[in-house]
Amino acid sequence: MNAIDLVATNLGKRDDTPNQELAIEIIRTKRTDWIKELVTYVYDKDKNIQSDCIKVLYEIGERGSGDLIAPYCEDFGKLLDSKNNRLVWGAMTALDTITAHHPAGVYALLSTILRALDRGSVIATDHCVGILAKLSGFPEYADVTFPLLMEQLKRCPPKQLPMYAEKSIVVIHTRNKETFINLIQSRIPEMDKESQRTRLHKVMKKVKDK
User: Fold this and answer.
1) Angle (CA) 180 183 100, round 5°
2) N or C: which end of the chain has fewer CB within 10 A?
3) Does the predicted model carry a pTM greater than 0.90?
4) What's the rounded Cα separation, in Å, for the pair 199 and 165?
5) Which residues does 153 contact at the CB level (< 8 Å), separation at least 6?
6) Residue 186 contacts by C-beta under 8 Å, 6 or more apart in sequence?
7) What residues contact 194, with CB distance under 8 A and at least 6 apart?
8) How many CB atoms lie within 10 A of CB 149?
9) Cα Dmax for the chain
10) Quick check: 141 and 135 in contact, CB under 8 A?
11) In Å, what is the CA distance from 208 to each residue of 11, 35, 49, 178?
């Protein structure tokens, strides 16, 4: 049996459960041949098949096995230019999960990632911030990616800021903490919910205690 036979569309299912189950099975069995097969089908003419395949692939990454899909970093990069928004944010999600495993490959796609960010969905933006945060943890990329990360924190909608700030904590250190804290403090008045302000104050406390 081929992997494509097990995706939701080909099983006559209208939910993502079969795709999630397939991702779990691939992780369990380390079926890298199935991963390769699914990557070829993200270019299928049937958008439902495309959607199923990208779902399985990023589910593998989100379930802690980003190393299994990391060899297809360039393929995910190509999908960022797709006219199918489902593929764009799905590919961005996949790239977010493999950044720690293949930072050089993801960094090489930075211009493509930023281009997709400018026209992407909220989900794509969320994962782009995750990518920038992870890349900023590598000294060889931080000089480029940290300012880009701060720019996202500066201009993102207020409701997204607490999550983005939390994603950024791991790359804040002595040399950049003042910049980070000043930015967060400047945006706290924009928060319309006490829960948002509380989360941001917790972030700042963690950073100050570093």
Assistant:
1) 40
2) N
3) yes
4) 9
5) 129, 161, 164, 165, 168, 180, 183, 184, 187
6) none
7) none
8) 25
9) 57
10) yes
11) 52, 43, 48, 9
Residue carrying structure tokens 């996202």: 152
Encode pLDDT of 81-92 as tens digits: 999 999 999 999
| Contact status, residue 167 vs residue 150, Cβ threshold 8 Å | no
Token output for 24: 């779990």
Residue count (the chain): 210
Residue by residue, what is the 3-state secondary structure of the chain? CCHHHHCCHHHCCCCCHHHHHHHHHHHHHCCHHHHHHHHHHCCCCCHHHHHHHHHHHHHHHHHHHHHHHHHHHHHHHHHCCCCCHHHHHHHHHHHHHHCCCCHHHHHHCHHHHHHHHHHCCHHHHHHHHHHHHHHCCCHHHHHHHHHHHHHHHHHCCHHHHHHHHHHHHHHCCCCCHHHHHHHHHHHHHHCCCHHHHHHHHHHHHHHHCC
Q: What is the pLDDT of residues 165-201, one digit of tens each?
A: 999 999 999 999 999 999 999 999 999 999 999 999 9
